[in-house]
Amino acid sequence: MLDTRAGGKGVSGTRSSGMGAKSANDILGAEYDWLAGDGDGHVALFSTAGGGYAPDVFLRDTDAHAAAIGAVLACAATTSARFAPTLASKCENTWKLVAERGLFAYDADIDGGPYRMVAAPEVAIEAAHLPEVAVDVIRRLTFARLRFVDLSTLSERALLHGG
């Protein structure tokens, strides 16, 4: 279940700017990445692969998530990736890069299906140690009953119910 401490449905912390609002149909078939926190205060990047579940909180402000991911990637590496896929040299390996900054990374399937962990950090970072723009979006999208460190797959149902 999404963290609702601020009293808004699925939202905690500050309100979305409304910029970059999209519907699930708008992103179907396209790759979008979003960030979320877990009950331990850790963070994961989720890649939709064109078919993965996308939470309404993310859809309301996709630009905020893009800016947050950019800010995370602009940070220096703080750890190494425990595992990450090897990609062609011409491709930026965002999953490995975020793992080197302490985030977990999940990828969905183009045909839907669960998110699968594709990269993990040696040492996970707490959300509070990330740039403020990232902390802001993570505050709005936290799965309080999940622990990324224990979850190699995450179904839409698990994300909808937070565990």
General description of the model:
The protein is of the alpha/beta class and 163 residues long. It is built from 6 helices and 7 strands, in the order αββααβαββαββα. α3 (62-74) packs across α5 (132-140). The protein is globular, with a radius of gyration of 14 Å. Residues 1-18 have low confidence and may be disordered.
What's a quick, concise take on this entry?
The chain has 163 residues and is an alpha/beta fold. It is 26% helix and 21% strand.
How many E strands?
A: 7
Task: Report how far the terminal alpha carbons are from each other.
Answer: 7 Å
Question: Which range best describes the helical content: under 10%, 10-25%, 25-40%, 40-55%, 55-70% or over 70%?
Answer: 25-40%
Task: State which percent range the strand residues make up.
Answer: 15-25%
Structural class by helix and strand composition: alpha/beta
- Indicate the low-confidence ranges by residue numbers: 1-18
Structural Rg: 14 Å
Please state the average pLDDT score. 83
Q: Element order, helices and strands? A: HEEHHEHEEHEEH
**What global shape is seen?**
globular
Largest beta-sheet characterization: 7 strands, mixed
Tally of helical segments: 6
Properties at a glance:
163 residues; alpha/beta; seven-stranded mixed sheet; 6 helices; 7 strands; globular
